[in-house]
Here is the input.
Amino acid sequence: MPVDLSLSPDTMRMFVQKARAAASSDNDGFEDGRDHEVEFDVDTLEDSHAHDGLAEEESEDLSGEELRELIEDLNVDEAAELVAIVWIGRGDYDQSDFEQAVEQARERAVGSTATYLIGMPLFADHLEAGLDALDV
Here is the structure.
């Protein structure tokens, strides 16, 4: 069933890519179960995590912030469609219920759409599954 979206399919797929990049950058610091462990030199029992007392700089990955800004820039119709597609991908609605899902998304929109979607576990997966279900 073809649907007429406010946003292009390429833009929707870009959201999937941005969401995956943001999710992977959130998990980068916790690979291999070594979440920022401090190692000690057993001979001197001193902290071998050397620094000069200044705050350590981290490479700042802006993919999460960029995704948030892109979602916040959507108009009401675009945001409702994005949420509806995620709901379809999550299994809350069937692809034949797209218009109903969009209407529900408009009615339920209270807070930040970006906060809602970015905070959703598997946001990128649900969005991609929804796009696939709608043949977009």
Summary: Residues 9-27 form the longest helix (19 residues). Residues 1-27+58-136 form one domain.
